[in-house]
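Sequence only, no structure available. Ideas?
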Amino acid sequence: MVKRIFLRLVTVSLVLALGLFWLGYFSVRPPLTIDPAILTGDGSTINYCNLPELDGSAKMAAEIPKGNTPGCGYTHFPLPVLAQCTEPLPEQADDIRGLWLGVEGGHTGHVERVEQCGNRTVVTSAGLIHDYGPNSTAGLNTNDTEGSVLFIAGDKEYCMRTSASMIWDNGVLDFHAFGWGPVVVNRYREGEQLVWKYADGSTTHMDRICTLPPEHKVPTPRGKRYKLF
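Reply:
I predicted one. Tokens follow.
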């Protein structure tokens, strides 16, 4: 009796694990809804200390196509997604726009670009584009990939699917897994620095920089990258 129950528990656990693995790595990739010009353009030439005025004089966040990651990562640092957007930020949001460099903590050397417009936030870094908020082509949550390639079959890379919401809570930008789940990442300002708390338990303090370091124009491939065939 005990043995049968144990075997059933093992079987259920195995089926669940395989199902989650299939969902993460083999489910249909999200459609690429980003404006192609964003990906073909060069975002490394921009002065990110010259931030646009959010005065409502141009496009609203909901008028701009959603940005997401092509495949398992972009090939070079793309143009800003929200460059034409001037919708003012909501009252609960802090202004953390700009280009940031990790100078202390778990991910020293990390570089990320944060865009904001209205209720929309886009974080671009290390080959990934995570875009949350109202847009003209898809849903609210980020819906793309984690970017770390686990294995390669033929010429196709396989990386995990991800989805999250970015919700402001008293000046802290919380990333909720799947849009409704627990907070796995957050960002907030501390003086002139941006603090990034990541899912691996690390805390990184970042300084604002104006131009992209040349070594970050092309992202470094990530993951185990096991070659199957």
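The longest strand covers residues 156-169.
Hope that gets you unstuck.
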